[in-house]
Amino acid sequence: MIPTRCASSGFFVEICAMPHISQRGQAMPASPIRKLVPFAEMAEQQGKKVHYLNIGQPDIPSPAGAMDALRHHDVKILAYSHSAGFISYRKKLVDYYSKHGIHITAQDMIVTTGGSEALAMAMGAILDPGDEIIIPEPYYANYLGFATASGAVVIPVVSSIESGFELPSMSEIESLITPKTRALLLCNPGNPTGKLYTKKELAQVRKIALKHDLFIIADEVYREFTYDRLKHTSVMSLEGMEEHAVLIDSVSKRYSMCGARIGLLASKNESFMSSAMRFAQARLSPPTFEQIAAEAALETPDAYFKEVNVEYTKRRDYLIGRLNAMDGVFCPKPSGAFYCMAQLPVENSDHFCQWMLESFDHEGNTVMMAPAGGFYTDSSLGAQQVRLAYVLDVQDLKVAMDALEVGLQVYPYRLA
Amino acid sequence: MIPTRCASSGFFVEICAMPHISQRGQAMPASPIRKLVPFAEMAEQQGKKVHYLNIGQPDIPSPAGAMDALRHHDVKILAYSHSAGFISYRKKLVDYYSKHGIHITAQDMIVTTGGSEALAMAMGAILDPGDEIIIPEPYYANYLGFATASGAVVIPVVSSIESGFELPSMSEIESLITPKTRALLLCNPGNPTGKLYTKKELAQVRKIALKHDLFIIADEVYREFTYDRLKHTSVMSLEGMEEHAVLIDSVSKRYSMCGARIGLLASKNESFMSSAMRFAQARLSPPTFEQIAAEAALETPDAYFKEVNVEYTKRRDYLIGRLNAMDGVFCPKPSGAFYCMAQLPVENSDHFCQWMLESFDHEGNTVMMAPAGGFYTDSSLGAQQVRLAYVLDVQDLKVAMDALEVGLQVYPYRLA
Description:
The structure is a homodimer of 416-residue chains. Chain A is of the alpha/beta class and 416 residues long. Chain A has two domains: 23-61 and 303-410, Aspartate Aminotransferase, domain 1; 64-297, Type I PLP-dependent aspartate aminotransferase-like (Major domain) (Aspartate Aminotransferase, domain 2, 3-Layer(aba) Sandwich), CATH 3.40.640.10. Chain A has helices spanning 23-27, 37-45, 64-71, 87-99, 114-126, 141-149, 170-174, 199-212, 270-282, 288-297, 302-325, 349-358, 394-410; strands at 49-52, 109-113, 132-137, 153-158, 181-187, 215-219, 245-250, 262-267, 339-343, 365-368, 370-371, 385-389. Chain A has a seven-stranded mixed sheet, with helices on both faces. Chain A has a three-stranded antiparallel sheet with strand order 9-12-11, covered by helices on one side. In chain A, helix 3 (64-71) packs across helix 10, helix 5 crosses helix 9 and helix 11 runs parallel beside helix 13 (394-410). Chain A is globular and about 60 Å long. Chains A and B meet through helix 1, helix 3, helix 5, helix 6 and helix 8 of A and helix 1, helix 3, helix 5, helix 6 and helix 8 of B.
């Protein structure tokens, strides 16, 4: 018998050098938010103060009640919980959602390990390999990650920075619908755009869902973060969408508890939930301690959110003011979440962001931003844009904006 | 324009009734361990005492040090951790693994949300939709769940109860290898079999991996649970397997911390790890509090494991003794984990297990077991078998075995 052909090297050998990584494993995108980390580490080693505006990790303390709940736990055997999560927690969530105009029962919910797992389960239950999901772009980069992981195809529809990332028109979206289209995914309020969809835009979403029989997967983890007295409208509250609406949620941003990894998947569609529940059973249960914290977080007083809102409004106004005052910069005012997308007078924001860390400082300060290419399927669409998260206080933002302003002036590849 | 054809109903309607669930979402298996839960609940409502031998949830207290660590946490902002998990935890794990003959660095590890996520990431990085993974059966039912979720195909190879679930022969395994085969998945010690593979069996695994260029995914979460002075050998410790061996691990069973959902994915194969890392980045990070508990658990004194081992040995000996003394029952003696598979004189263990809950009690007691059909790809192969987890103390096991013994005597569909 001749020796085996090595799938890696292509040679016939007795012992193969290396087994294969899957195509999807190769296609998995690197995080655009985290990929500049080595340059930031280098900048810090050089003694620079790096202001991190690249990642949605708020500096707001988590609610004291939630953190205290863990200090007083009485767990002796850290056992599996229900695959859908604590029933006590889900029952309390019924009230929380009801206050936000979302009327669901504890049976309509699965507690997940972060919004991430809710997304992965939703895609698993809706999309087969090769199926298509339409997403307005720029979009949260990990949507592409989860779609790639499940073998599905993201079909982007561009929303423009000039319009403040308005929902693309009915006809633009409809022109992308094929027999393989299964769902439309919306982030509202939007990461990375900060866009809060209007009732009119959501009416259009509803029309598309019902007309074309599509699921609407609504990522509403920034629900509490709306400004200028605008109110968030949930896809779950739209009339006649019981079979079509799927809610992705998380405590990460709401309570500044990103590390809890407690999210939620909810829908009134019973066959969807029954399928999602089998994905949930396969991974057994969400983490126990973090559910204790999340359940306690529900007691957080309204004053917490008011304070947070005042703080973020101040930061947003300051950041947007500074950005738009810079020569050649344009940044639409976000009405939700805590991100903004800025158009910079540079050819390639990947290079500019790296340069800011590698080759620049202003009085010892520099800024880490997320180049926007990773938020677009065709990364060239974001080549002049960056995402900034206003997760630092105004004093830090001032130093960061001073550095960015000078950086843009002296950047050797600045566009005229 | 005519109205849209509704994909669910097939009719032309203005508003469609319902969007579709994916084929994989429909194919996701229900948990064989949890599917009898409604009958158990009913039995309890009828006042019966149900002895739960169906699920691998130990009754052993989690290490006090790990539980205390949470009581003294000083987390103010519950932030994202590194996508690969706390570096402090990974560095300590280097020592833990080294004691078990597994020589890996902190860079060879990704802390995952349970062994479940480690499995999902490993399959994602190795298998494309349609690719094949060979698994000796009976196997942990959720392997099928994760393979289905990732669109891959499980190719089972039967290990027989008569042989004590020995690894199938080289030629049997090789006869199943096709151009689509990417990996062999082993659970060692085995769930549901309790089988601890010998060095000879592992040498065969190594030969197959190197000859056919396959990944070996080794689920070794029961490493500490070996009996009769037998020692566990890790696939990671086999010579020349650096590029082929992938380790799945978890704190769930080791420290009786199933609810922590802290697992580990490890390999010396850099391209595998770099791909897995992108899956890890997409879901951001494992839960923070549970990592604190898992890191503290590493300080658990050896006495804890010795006590646990003594306890499980006692339970195993009692359980196996009782089972094999029952007329028509055969149960090979497991050398690892805390499960055994028993062959019963019944035609359909699904029905028998349901009947035990629904229609039987012995002095108010009954037993919940896991019918073994769900541990086989062709469920008929497990029709006469059940899995029992010896996660109760000997006193409870006695009452449970008394009930099972009488149940088997009076079961109307008992085989002669």
